[in-house]
Amino acid sequence: MTPATAVAKAAAVSGRIRSLHYRVTGTVPEKGRLEAEASMRTEPAVMEMKMNATEQSADGQLEIRFVDEVMYVSGSAVDSEKLDGKGWFSAEPAVWGRGAVDNNSYRVLPRPIEGSPVAQSTILTASKDVRRIGTETIDGARTTHYRGTVIGRGISAARDAAVNKTARERQIDNLDQFMALSIDGTLTMDLWIGDDNQTKQYRMRGDTRATRGGTEGKPLEFIDGEPLDLTVTFLDINQPVTVEAPPSEDTADLAASADEVHVG
């Protein structure tokens, strides 16, 4: 099996994931070093994450839930004045797990982890230089390690060259996920695939771009952002996942303003 075929098979298998328990570690723009563990379900779409931004403050712990397009946030990193004596605050409409335009976590989550890890794991299918690195054990499972690079134009070309509707739709999703990462140029991606053709882990690295201006008559311009280096490990696949909204009596309702909701 060629590396490109192995990566394509893993993407097809990932398309059958309906729920996922996963771990996130690495460095992301604005938040710095972070660690997180989360569970998600695709239908209906829900997600629960416990995140610790270790470099941002001495106590940067958050618990975030997305249920029925409402985001609920609790934790030691939340300003107690926002909570008004409650254990959680909520904000809506909130969207997680989609792409560059649709996602909205009011800056509580870094943009690179607003996207679904299932969708992100397939981005390497657009690479023209995928190669086999070797075999490694990930979370107790034997895997084959692949690496390649991806650029926006490459994803567009892969979309146009897709031989069927499923492959074309995957590359459309890949382009959306790539845009959400705000990569400036080239994304380097590593993928660890098990003997069952299931993705076990992926790592994304690249320079990012940021924006400034766009207000008070100042033109919007792109500037150099901070580096991205993020590793996502799949722990449990297609196991039952239940995420519930906190009790309404323990939830403070905030206006849908990014300045009000932003924490950390």
CATH class: Mainly Beta
Q: What's the rounded overall pLDDT mean?
A: 88
Assess the beta-strand content as a share of residues.
35-45%
- Main beta-sheet strand count, sense and barrel state: 12 strands, mixed
Description:
With 264 residues, the protein is α+β, with helices and mostly antiparallel strands. The chain has a single domain (3-261), classed as outer membrane lipoprotein receptor (LolB), chain A, CATH 2.50.20.20. It is 19% helix and 38% strand. The protein has 6 helices and 14 strands. It has helices spanning 3-14, 80-83, 117-120, 152-161, 165-180, 258-261, and strands at residues 19-28, 32-41, 46-53, 61-67, 70-74, 88-91, 131-138, 141-150, 187-194, 199-206, 209-212, 221-224, 228-237, 251-253. The strands form 2 sheets. The protein has a 12-stranded mixed beta sheet with strand order 7-8-9-10-13-1-2-3-4-5-6-14. The protein has a two-stranded antiparallel ribbon with strand order 11-12. α4 (152-161) runs antiparallel to α5 (165-180). The radius of gyration is 19 Å and the shape is globular.
Question: Quick gist of this model?
Answer:
Helices cover 19% and strands 38% of the residues. The protein is an alpha+beta fold.
Write the layout of secondary structure elements.
Layout: H1 3-14, E1 19-28, E2 32-41, E3 46-53, E4 61-67, E5 70-74, H2 80-83, E6 88-91, H3 117-120, E7 131-138, E8 141-150, H4 152-161, H5 165-180, E9 187-194, E10 199-206, E11 209-212, E12 221-224, E13 228-237, E14 251-253, H6 258-261
Parallel strand pairs: 6-14
Antiparallel strand pairs: 1-2, 1-13, 2-3, 3-4, 4-5, 5-6, 7-8, 8-9, 9-10, 10-13, 11-12
